[in-house]
Structure formats: C-alpha cells, structure tokens
Specification:
By secondary structure, the protein is of the alpha/beta class. The chain has 2 domains: 30 residues; 236 residues, Aldolase class I (TIM Barrel). It contains 13 helices and 8 strands. Helix 8 links the parallel strand 5 and strand 6.
Length: 270
C-alpha cells in the first residue's frame, strides 16, 4: 500500500508538472479551425441564374462534413454572395459565421449589425474589386478603425482585421481595439510555390509572434491550399483559424466536397 501511495504521488506530481509547462493548454487552445468561404459556390450559381448550386444547402452540408465555420464576403455589386444570401445563411449556421467586407460601405455595416455573425473580418477592398489583395494600413486608418470596431463589438461580434505580414501593421491593429487579425497569405503562397518555404513563412511568423505579444487572436487566409497549408500551420502552431474558399472548391471538383474538407482539416493537425 505504501508503494502504491508513493507511486500515486509521483504520478500526481508528473501530471502537475505537465500542466505547469502549458503543454496541454497549447494543444487544446491552439487547435486551428477551418472556416470555408463559399463565395465561389455563389459565383457558379450567379453565372447561370436560378439557384443551382444552392449556397444555403452547400453551407449546411459543409458544416455536416466537419468544417468549423462558414465565411462569406458580400460585395456591393453582389458578384457572388448576395446580401439576402447572408440573411438566409444566418438561419442555418450551427458552427461559426464569419462575414468579411469593407466597413466603409454603410450597407455592409447595416447587414452585419442585422445578422450578428460570430465574427466580422474587416477588409479594405475597393469597389468592384475581384478579390482581396492587401491588408489595412493600420497606422494611416487607425482613427477610423478605432471608431468603427466598437460598433460591432458592443453587440457581441468579434472583430478581426485583414493585415499584411508586417509587425508595424500588427502593432497598429492592436491599437485599434480589434480582437484578432487575419494575415493576408497570398505572398506566402506565391513564395512557397517557388520552393522558398522558409523565406515564405518568415514574415508571417514574425507578425504572428507580434500578434501573440499583443494578445490578438490570429487568423489567416488567401491562397492557402493542400500544398502549403500544413507547413504554415506547423510553423505557426498558435493559429486560431484559417478561411479557405477558392482552392478548397477547386479541389472539391476532383475529390468531392466531403473528402476535401477532411483533407484540409487533416492538414491543420500538428
């Protein structure tokens, strides 16, 4: 009995030591989540008219297949996701809803406040822009961002702002009062494709570490795919969420939507 108690004491000590090192916390708190951007599904629907494919049913299925969330980016010209799509999608969300867009458009702000997603990601898109291609200059636009961000936070919406992998911009983001940043990863994807993986991720790791210092949550998105996602996740293990649309939908054409979502989720495992 004495030996058993001694062994039990030793095991208890090892467990406490394990938790004190924060290993368990790291494993749990930094499980990177996949949010699927369904804009491309809406683009396909809009190219023909009618409601095929049905973006609402697609969102239901994507969640059923294991994605943690749904992302949409309604633009003023409604080239893909329409404003009414957002209203209909809100009704069927069982995971997390993320709406991206430019808050300088009052129509966008009104839509977000009406539908109250879990997260809004503020993106500095120009009118008529095909896809996002840069982050906020958080120094130049800091006063504006500090003014608009609380409008969402006061109704319980988490606010993320789209930034380039620049430590100065990350510092500026922290000053705006945002809850998270989303790193614009097109530059990473391009260099990774050139075989320069370490060079590709260096600025992103520095920006991510700076965000962590400021207590900002960390998202990432744009041109992440099955080739480059795992390496990015391994280098930045405290990544909260990735938002992936174009590449995932392209892969789904060959692999099927359910299998593709599982492959992307697997790429996020350490």
């Amino acid at each position: 009995m004495e030996k058993f108690l001694e062994l039990l004491h030793k095991v208890n000590y090892e467990i406490k030591n394990y938790f004190s090192k924060g290993i368990f916390a790291v494993a749990c708190n930094f499980m990177t989540k996949l949010s699927v951007n369904i804009n491309k599904i809406a683009t396909l629907r809009n190219s023909r008219g009618g409601n095929n494919p049905d973006v609402v049913q697609a969102a239901i299925d994507i969640q059923r297949f294991g994605a943690y969330g749904i992302t949409v980016h309604p633009r003023p010209d409604e080239q893909n996701i329409r404003y009414d799509d957002v209203r209909q999608l809100k009704k069927i969300i069982t995971t997390e809803f993320n709406i991206e867009g430019n808050p300088t458009e009052q129509k966008f702000v009104d839509l977000v406040l009406e539908t109250k997603p879990h997260q809004v990601t503020l993106v500095p898109d120009a009118s008529g822009q095909l896809t996002s291609n840069h982050g906020w200059d958080t120094m130049q636009h800091q006063s504006y961002l500090r003014e608009i961000i609380p409008a969402f936070q006061k109704v319980g919406i988490r606010v993320s702002i789209f930034v380039d992998p620049d430590v100065t911009m990350v510092g500026g983001a922290a000053e705006t009062g945002a809850d998270r940043i989303e790193l614009y990863t097109e530059g990473y994807a391009r260099k990774f494709a050139e075989g320069k993986s370490e060079e590709a991720v260096a600025a992103y790791l520095a920006a991510a570490q700076k965000a962590q210092e400021f207590g900002l949550g960390l998202n990432a998105g744009h041109d992440l795919d099955l080739k480059n996602l795992k390496f990015f996740r391994q280098k930045i293990p405290f990544l909260d969420e990735v938002s992936i649309g174009h590449a995932l939908i392209c892969d789904a054409l060959y692999l099927g939507l359910e299998k593709t979502i599982q492959l992307y989720k697997n790429s996020l495992l350490l």
